[in-house]
Amino acid sequence: MIRYLIHIFQLILVIFFSNQSFAEDASKILTISEGLRLVTDNNRLIKIASLNKNIAFSDILIARAKLLPSINASLRQTYLTHQIGAIFGQDKVFISQKEYLFYGINLYQTIYDFGANISRYEASKTFLDVTNLDIARIRNLVALDFINTYFDLLETEKMMEVAEKEVERFESHLKVAQSLYAEGTITKNGLLQAEVMLSDAKQRLLTMKNRKAIDISRINTILARPINEDLQVVDVPMDISQGVELEKAWEMAEKQRREVKIIDHELKIIDLEEKAAKSEYYPKLFAQGGYNFTENRYQFPEGNWSVILGIDLNLFSGGSTKAEVSKVLHRREQLLEEKRKLMDDIKLEVEKSYLDLKNALEKILVTKGAANQAEENLRINKIKYEEGIGTSTDVIDAITLLTLAETNYCRALYELRRAQAELRYATGSDLVSVYASQ
After folding, report:
1. Check: CATH 1.20.1600.10 for 33-83+114-430?
2. Furthest-apart CA pair in the chain: how many Å?
3. N or C terminus of the chain: which is more exposed, having fewer CB within 10 Å?
């Protein structure tokens, strides 16, 4: 009975630790969609840009305050060395105490200023939109960097598989060479040649393993994880379609790129700033009212309500208003020129990504066929070598040729994936949304 209970307890422990191990392995599996979620949630550049949003919101509150009434309260206690009076003929009459208290509350409200304050308020709200667009721009840029790094790791893993196959092929070739050497069919030189090529293939495999470790560290760094933490990535389904046409891609970029939208919003801000600057040429209508009390027995009434309607007009400001308007106009010209340059740069970026995608598609077709031919070439040369018709050099060349073809094919596959991501970024697509289901 005791032995039976011990077996049950051991079985429970095995199941528990197996589940723990499975959970740990599962936690290391990283899909591209999960990685994008993590990187866009934790990236420092995005966090810094998000703080600009808080600053912009504070600027809105500051600008809005100009539209609201200003209320000031004051309290003063005055001490005079001499009591103030007035002369009426031969008489002197005091008109103030030596010590008196004054307090009051006053309200000031701009009634009309030719749109100065409302323009600044609208400009501050538009700048908040600019910060949101900039956050989205940085988010997409960070996503692109992660996607390229993710595909780099996937490519390295595929290259490791190619290197492992190369090692297996040279090991198989070495066994055949050893057998033929033992039979006296080939010379020692043929055997040494096979050993050297096997050693060289193992070195390439080690290089790929080191490259994989570096790529994992890069991803961990982007995700703010421990740099040496292991992880497994999941391949992304390959889409070999050409995608949108070049003209359509340019149109999408012009409509969707955040950089273009940012400049359009900045031009809107410039228009509002110009209106606010030009308002300084015109008068401002204001209203002021309040209650003031002076504790003075020589004065009556001591307290008084007041209402003032007035106009303020700046007759001369040393040319500052004209200079401010001129500055705004120059800034508009600068932004328009920046937009033209930006559109040229985006057009070039879209065209490059489009051509890279087209080139990668063509490479896939060419390299896949070459890999199939190289595999058949190796099979034929192996048969010839085993039958004593071919040479060791022929087999080695065939293995090398097949490895090269497989390498080129793998590179073309991930060149395609990177080109697709670059084109999606260039056209302004939201990369997190595009790869959300992958």
Report:
1. yes
2. 148
3. N
